[in-house]
Design goal:
The structure holds three protein chains of three kinds.
Chain A: H1 19-45, E1 54-56, H2 59-73, E2 74-77, E3 84-86, E4 93-99, E5 102-104, E6 106-110, E7 115-121, E8 126-131, E9 135-139, E10 143-149, E11 155-161, E12 173-179
Parallel strand pairs in A: 3-6, 4-7, 6-12
Antiparallel strand pairs in A: 1-10, 2-3, 4-5, 7-10, 8-9, 8-11, 11-12
Chain B: E1 4-6, E2 13-15, H1 16-47, H2 56-91, H3 98-121, H4 138-167, H5 177-207, H6 216-227, H7 229-250, H8 257-270, H9 287-294, H10 296-322, H11 331-334, H12 341-364, H13 378-405, H14 414-440, H15 463-496, H16 506-509, H17 546-571
Antiparallel strand pairs in B: 1-2
Chain C: H1 15-20, H2 23-47
Classes of the chains: A alpha+beta, B mainly alpha, C mainly alpha.
Chain lengths: 181, 577, 53
């Protein structure tokens, strides 16, 4: 009489199911459907969604776009790291690239303004992990990802790399400053 | 001609060649668990920032080997043993093509060793995922390919045995539920291995220079059909083992064959779609694809797991109530054999898999919530609840059963075995809970130094994150201790455990023939259908297992609350779209 | 003397039970579903990402 013997009934499909299981399956199914519809609901009414806008590119092409962007809006050079600090106009297209082992450039943004952030990698997979907000995106070589972001609090934010990218992975730290306007 | 022995304790019939194959596969699994466990210590003691044991290069090397040995080699070797048990032993059938099964085993061993050698040599510290264009040595990929081919042969031996058993009519009616669950695992394994072949073979050619480019995003999508589905094999396998264990310990029968099998069918249909959990914050993949796949098509595989979550303990409760443990809601559970590691291991695995592994998995697999969890240490915390406790502890519990039944040995140091599930589950639970917390604070996975030593720009995690990594480290060390206790008992039993009569001890597993008298059955009698039971009504109002129903509702409440908390947390981060 | 012997016809196994008793049908479903919805659809998604200007 057990779970590792053939079923007791030849036609077990027609053995009636107990009320307890029917009740539980119904509750569980309702919960599953709620969780499922929560995702499209959030796309309509929620504010944190990931766009699927992306382009196929390569290191030269994406690197050139980033350089153009840096030349146009660079305001200073960060003394500690020697990385340019870029202050793009509110609401513009902004760029950041990941490479071994650096996020480039440093961005200076205005609070409550929406930017189109272009993310790409020059070499391997990297992980864009914005701290302490804890927003995490996969940065894949060969692809340029475009996300609209709206920093809603002023302060200094750090971009940590959270996709393993070799021995210097832990030194790959970038910055985004958000100013009050 | 096949020769069977009957186990005088359990009544199981073992085909001689199937028995040897089960033994070698289970032992091989334990050896790779030993390797994974030692490496785990290196990982945990480095991530515990105040200890920070290993240098960066060694840490990544150790982490790569730990992941592959634990998540691939240990579980799949053990699962092949389970497949042979669920087909040959449970159906009283000779094993199909034992020669092929041995060839498969040899390939798996060669592949696993080759892959480990590649990592050991130091040029293949690419993590288990080996995302291109980061490149490992060619024999890193070749080892995985050979291992996969070997495992595929094992799957087909299982299917072949099902066919033989049916043709020879070794059983009446439908296959037992446990065998059906093993079939589910086998089907998922075949998809997993096929996906692995599709992506690893070109990657191997790329590593030796025949192909000059592999698209990084294509690689990620197809690789995860291997990487995630391989863990879904574990789910199907350990749920089957749960049904086996409650059957053996409590004489429990499924509350409803139809419901339990239907739940496995939902796994077959939908479980593997969840490979999309890893692609939720990747560039360019459409929202429709993400929502459909990440939710296993409307969470139908989650529904299946919630069904098993009711029917496994529910079947046990019904059986216990039938024995007279009917007081209150939980006497059936209080009076369970908590000192028997087969039971305690199984039950901890069930609870931790459901309450921690299951809930965190669904939450972080929600398309938008993944934004605040992807690649943080929350992810390894989740899969240590599912694989390192759910699957591994279940297989440990099963081992305590197999030592007398399959290896015919008495347990060595039974008091260590008795404590083992408590130490392992306790330590792992501490580690998992605190690592979940650290992940919520943004601590990365696969990261050598949360101090960012040597970085041109600085960042400091909050002190709480350090505290959580430290307590997680203590839990992890306890977990490793629990793993070591398991291996001491297992290896000790095989080497020094008292031989049970009629002896079929360790030497036999190395191919040394036994006295012929032990295997004196040509074909066991046909396996009969389980006897019909008189309808007994326990509980009330058609609720045969009211205690389990209360536990299930508790799970649902935790689930709903935790799900809501995470949406609330998501709503607090920068708006994006 | 001939007498017809009545062998009671066993009840036909329902469709779903026959499906669950057929490992190769299940194998086909279990491989086809994720191959179509996860792998093929996913690969098409990536292949149709537009090229950057």
């Amino acid at each position: 009489m057990s779970s590792f013997l053939p079923p007791a009934d030849r036609i077990w499909w027609k053995v009636p199911v107990g009320r307890q299981e029917i009740v539980w399956i119904s509750i569980a199914l309702v919960w599953c459907l709620i969780m499922f519809f929560m995702m499209p609901y959030w796309h309509v009414y929620g504010k944190q969604n990931l766009s699927s806008e992306a382009y196929q590119t390569n290191a030269e092409k994406f690197g050139a776009s980033v350089e153009t962007f840096v030349e146009k809006y660079q305001t200073r050079i960060d003394e500690q790291s020697g990385i340019p600090v870029v202050t793009p106009p509110a609401g513009s297209d902004i760029y950041m690239l990941g490479r071994l082992w650096q996020w480039y450039p440093i961005l200076e943004l205005e609070k409550d303004k929406t930017y189109r952030l272009h993310l790409g990698s020059m070499d391997w997979n990297h992980g864009f992990s914005l701290q302490p907000v804890n927003i995490n995106l996969q940065v894949v070589p060969g692809y340029e990802m475009v996300i609209k972001i709206t920093p809603d609090q002023a302060g200094e934010y750090t971009v940590v790399c959270n996709e393993f990218c070799g021995i210097g992975h832990h030194t790959m730290v970038g910055k985004i400053y958000v100013k009050e306007n | 001609m096949a020769k069977f022995r009957v186990c005088p304790d359990s009544g199981f019939y073992f085909d001689k060649s199937a028995e040897s194959l089960m033994k070698v596969n289970a032992v091989a699994g334990a050896v790779f668990l030993l390797i994974a466990g030692i490496l785990a210590l290196g990982v945990i003691l480095t991530r515990w920032q105040e200890v920070h044991l290993l240098p960066a290069d060694l840490f990544y090397q150790v982490l790569t080997a730990h992941g592959i040995n634990a998540l691939i080699f240990w579980v799949i070797f053990f699962e092949i043993a389970i497949l042979y048990f669920a087909s040959s032993t449970l159906l009283r059938s000779r094993l199909a093509a034992p020669g092929w099964a041995w060839a498969g085993f040899a390939l798996m061993i060669i592949g696993a060793v080759m892959n480990n050698v590649a990592v050991l040599q130091g040029n293949s510290s690419v993590m288990m995922t080996s995302y291109v264009p980061m490149q490992a040595a060619p024999h890193f990929y070749l080892g995985l390919i050979l291992f996969a081919v070997g495992a595929l042969i094992g799957c087909f031996v299982f299917l072949g045995t099902l066919v033989i058993a049916k043709d020879d009519q070794t059983y009446q009616g439908s296959v037992p539920l446990v065998t059906f669950g093993a079939l589910t695992a086998c089907i998922i394994a075949i998809f997993t291995i096929a996906s692995g072949a599709i992506i690893l073979f070109p990657t191997f050619l790329w590593s030796i220079g025949y192909i000059n480019h592999i698209d990084a995003e294509m690689y990620r999508i197809i690789w995860w059909a291997l990487g995630h589905s391989s863990q879904q094999i574990n789910v199907a396998a350990h749920v089957s083992v749960w049904y086996l264990i409650i059957g053996i310990l409590f004489n429990a029968r499924p509350m409803s064959e139809k419901v339990s099998r239907f739940a496995f069918l939902l796994y077959i249909f939908f479980l593997q779609l969840a490979s999309a959990h890893h692609i939720l914050v990747d560039p360019g993949v459409s929202t429709e694809w993400k929502i459909f796949n990440t939710s296993y098509a409307m969470y139908l595989a989650v529904l299946a797991s919630m069904i098993h979550g009711l029917t496994v303990p529910g079947a046990m409760e019904v059986a216990q109530r039938g024995k007279g443990y009917t007081k209150g809601l939980f006497e059936w559970l209080r009076k369970a054999p908590w000192g028997n590691p087969v039971f305690s291991g199984f039950f901890f695995a069930l609870v931790i898999f459901g309450f921690i592994g299951g809930i965190t998995g669904v939450v972080m697999g929600t398309e938008q919530i993944n934004l605040i969890i992807h690649n943080t240490i929350y992810v390894p915390a989740h899969f240590h609840a599912t694989v390192a406790v759910g699957t591994t502890l279940t297989f440990m519990a099963l081992t305590y059963l197999l030592i007398p039944v399959l290896f015919r040995r008495a347990l060595f140091l039974p008091w260590v075995a008795k404590m083992q599930p408590y130490v392992f589950a306790g330590g792992m639970t501490i580690m998992i809970l605190f690592l979940l917390g650290a992940g919520t604070l943004g601590v990365s996975r696969r990261h050598w130094d949360m101090d960012f030593t040597g970085a041109a720009l600085s960042f400091e995690y909050p002190g709480t994150a350090y505290m959580m990594m430290a307590v997680g480290g203590i839990g992890g060390v306890l977990g490793v201790l629990g793993g070591a206790m398991y291996l001491v008992v297992t290896v000790g039993s095989l080497l020094f455990g008292k031989k049970l009569e009629p002896s079929a001890g360790l030497f036999q597993s190395f191919g040394v023939p036994l006295a012929a008298s032990a295997y004196n059955i040509d074909q066991p009698d046909q396996l009969q259908m389980a006897p019909k039971l008189a309808v007994e009504e326990h509980g009330s109002g058609g609720f045969e297992a009211p205690g389990t129903f209360v536990l299930a509702l508790a799970l649902l409440v935790c689930f709903v609350v935790y799900y809501a908390i995470n949406w609330d947390y998501l709503a607090s981060v920068w708006p994006m779209g | 003397m001939t007498e017809e012997i009545h062998i009671p016809k066993p009840e036909r196994i329902p469709f779903f039970q026959r499906m669950l008793d057929n490992p190769f049908l299940l194998l086909f479903i279990g491989v086809a579903m994720p191959t179509v919805f996860y792998v093929l659809w996913g690969v098409m998604e990536v292949a149709t990402i537009p090229i950057a200007k």
